[in-house]
Design goal:
The two termini are about 55 Å apart. The chain has about 550 residues and is an alpha+beta fold. It has helices at about 15-30, 45-55, 65-80, 85-100, 115-125, 130-140, 160-165, 195-200, 215-220, 225-235, 260-275, 280, 315-320, 465-470, and strands at about 100-105, 170-175, 180-185, 205-210, 240-245, 285, 330-340, 345-350, 355, 360-365, 370-375, 380, 385, 390-395, 410, 420-430, 435-440, 440-445, 450-465, 485, 490-500, 515-520, 520-530. It is built from 14 helices and 23 strands.
Length: about 550
């Protein structure tokens, strides 16, 4: 945490040099001390001490002996070796390399208990104190919403608290023994799916929250329910591992019933398989109570639930394996947000490469050369940040108004491509009112942090998944160029957008090559980029 306004403690005139040295050591060892640049002759403690002492009235001149003592103290401070800052930076670096970082997105139907589960995790991991919880309990009781108080930790604005619905993607941090987590609390309501997409696109693992309460699971799972859409979107957006938590097991209609748990698991398993998840490897089910915190940080007591012998939520999250990203790869950081703070600050998740202080980078697609002034992970200032980290990067050389969400920070030598058309392999999920999908079809494209209107300009080839498995070349039918396709089809098509967007082939960078198409509030197709125009060109040459 920064403490820009703090200064070095003033050195009292009666202090002996040994005490002053100890005080200086204590100050330098603190984590917010910044090492003076090499070769500079600045005296931060002296300057700060002088400022601190300036307002005090000193009618009598101090004795000459005291002046000599102060001078000798300042000299000792100047000549003192700066081991402490090195140690603190080194310790911080070791801590960061020791603990991996994961983004966890909470998804599921509206009212499944995502915000409550997220709030309970923060409370159990010591991020929220009892006093704050008591305040939220009183606030929820005053609104006759006693069971919502845990959700208030994640849902911070008044609109969300009044309606009991998450709108923005809530963000919070907590740590376990081996991992630093960032919780992304996605909205469950269908009106806010675009916000959910932006949350899920940053995530490494997903926690699908399902309500076991009678009627609530059925509502979320049936056609039009958000449980199905969220699972499909999560898979498309690169959430490779899923923890399915069956929440509200303490509800009177459930009472920790094994039959209800097995029924939900039995219905969800085939759907998760059809969505592309390997249920044995990538999915884990467990029962919890978000409101009571049962089976979250510690395993449940047998008196509460006799039949559950598996791990608790924290144990599963700690042990989960995710694919490693390349810290030496080309820098790719899609920008999600920006603001002004003594310079231009951009926020996003590093998908590839490492960003360090002093790096010269380029913001695409407007090709603006920038220099990295400072990097912040969570709230801490760091020298460099690796792939998978959510960071704030302060830049020089560009104005805040020249940046938009969806721009990408990348290497100068190997920048990300900026295109206005690309070829994609699409899977059609559900067209509105049984419409047909043909050239001229318009939709909204969601790809990493880009949201852009697009048009399908050409259908290139329909892929027959049954025939694709046949290896005999004689049996393979020649490519056929369709005029239109219907629900469930897989098709290669050309997509065109009006503004330049930064994307890459899915095979080169999955995070910048997978997307969804939505229209009128529904997800109609998911896809991946299979071809982009040649380097330096925004379109395919005719």
């Amino acid at each position: 945490m920064e403490h820009d306004g703090e200064m070095a403690p003033p050195i009292p005139s009666h202090a002996n040099p040994a005490d002053a040295d100890a005080a200086a050591d204590d100050w330098a060892a603190r984590d917010d001390f910044e090492e003076p640049p090499a070769g500079s002759h600045s005296h931060p403690p002296a300057a700060a001490a002088a400022e601190e002492e300036a307002p005090e009235e000193a009618p009598l001149a101090p004795p000459a002996e005291d002046i000599k003592e102060i001078e000798s103290t300042l000299q000792s401070l100047e000549l003192q070796p700066s081991d402490a800052p090195h140690d603190s930076v080194q310790m911080e670096a070791e801590e960061r390399t020791r603990k991996r970082h994961l983004n966890v997105v909470f998804i599921g139907h509206v009212d499944a208990g995502k915000s409550t589960a997220g709030g309970q995790i923060l409370f159990l991991s010591g991020q929220v104190d009892d006093r704050t919880i008591q305040k939220y309990e009183k606030e929820a009781k005053d609104k006759s919403r006693e069971s919502w108080y845990m959700a208030y930790i994640m849902d911070t604005n008044e609109e969300e608290r009044a309606k009991g619905k998450t709108v923005e993607v809530g963000r919070a941090h907590f740590e376990t023994e081996t991992t630093r987590f960032t919780i992304l609390d996605a909205p469950g309501h269908k009106s806010y799916v675009p916000n959910m997409i932006s949350g899920a696109s940053q995530a490494d693992i997903g926690v699908l929250v399902i309500s076991a309460r009678k009627g609530e699971f059925e509502t979320g799972y049936e056609r039009g329910g958000q449980t199905r859409e969220h699972v499909l979107l999560a898979k498309t957006l690169g959430v490779s591992k899923l923890i399915v938590v069956i929440n509200k097991m303490d509800d009177p209609t459930v009472g920790w019933s094994k039959e209800r748990y097995d029924e939900i698991e039995g219905k969800m398993t085939p759907f998760l398989k059809s969505s592309g998840y390997n249920v044995k490897k990538d999915v884990q089910f467990l029962p919890i109570s978000g409101l009571l915190g049962a089976n979250m940080k510690t395993q449940m007591d047998k008196s509460m639930c006799k039949w559950w012998n598996g791990p608790c939520l924290f144990e599963i999250m700690d042990c989960i394996e995710v694919p490693l990203r390349d810290p030496k790869g080309p820098v790719r950081m899609p920008i999600m947000d920006k603001y002004k703070d003594m310079g231009t600050v951009v926020m996003g998740k590093i998908e590839s490469g490492t960003i360090s202080e002093g790096d010269n980078l380029v913001v695409m697609p407007n090709k603006a050369n920038v220099k990295v002034i400072s990097v912040y992970c969570d709230e801490d200032k760091v020298r460099s940040a690796a792939p998978g980290e959510n960071v704030r990067v302060k830049l020089s050389g560009i104005e805040e108004e020249d940046i938009a969400a969806g721009f990408v920070l990348s290497n100068v030598g190997n920048p990300v491509g900026a295109v206005s058309e690309f070829n994609a392999q699409l899977q059609i999920l559900e067209l509105l009112d049984n419409a047909i999908f043909t050239a001229g079809y318009k939709a909204v494209l969601h790809i990493h942090s880009v949201v852009e209107e697009c048009e399908i300009v050409d259908l290139i080839e329909e892929i027959d998944l049954k025939r694709k498995k046949e290896s005999d070349p004689k049996k393979k039918k020649p490519k056929r160029k369709p005029l239109f396709v219907k629900n469930g089809a897989v098709v290669v098509c050309r997509v065109q957008v009006s503004n330049l967007i930064c994307i890459e082939n899915f095979s080169d960078s999955p995070q910048l090559g997978r997307f969804t198409l939505r229209t009128e509030g529904k997800t109609i197709a998911v896809g991946k980029v299979v071809a982009v125009p040649p380097t330096g060109s925004a379109t395919f040459k005719a």
